[in-house]
Write a structure and sequence with these properties.
Largest sheet: 4 strands, antiparallel
Number of helices: 4
Oligomer: single chain
Structural class: alpha+beta
Helix content: 25-40%
Number of domains: 1
CATH topology: Gyrase A, domain 2
CATH architecture: 2-Layer Sandwich
Shape: globular
Length: 85
């Protein structure tokens, strides 16, 4: 799976391409929103105001709104057990 992280006017967008299932991305977001993940610091979680998931298997986009840095999200993705297993 390829992950491309880019800064947007309102936050950060993550594009997942290749061997990616939309259900896995939804699961990752649910873990994060429920506090069940440890890939992202509490400070970063607090900065995220909204999360939108779009696309389909093989091409999933995750748009995070808030005052977050691209580097914070890249670090969290590297630690995510849901998408790195």
């Amino acid at each position: 799976m390829q992950k491309e992280v880019s800064k947007t006017a309102n936050g950060v967008k993550i594009s997942f391409l290749g061997e990616v299932k939309k259900a896995n991305i939804v699961s990752m977001v649910q873990n994060c929103q429920s506090g069940g993940c440890e890939c992202m610091s509490d400070a970063t979680k607090e900065k995220i105001k909204d999360i939108q998931i779009s696309g389909e298997d093989g091409n999933v986009n995750l748009t995070l709104s808030g005052d977050i840095l691209k580097e914070e999200i890249e670090e969290a993705l590297a630690k995510s057990t849901v998408i790195n297993n």
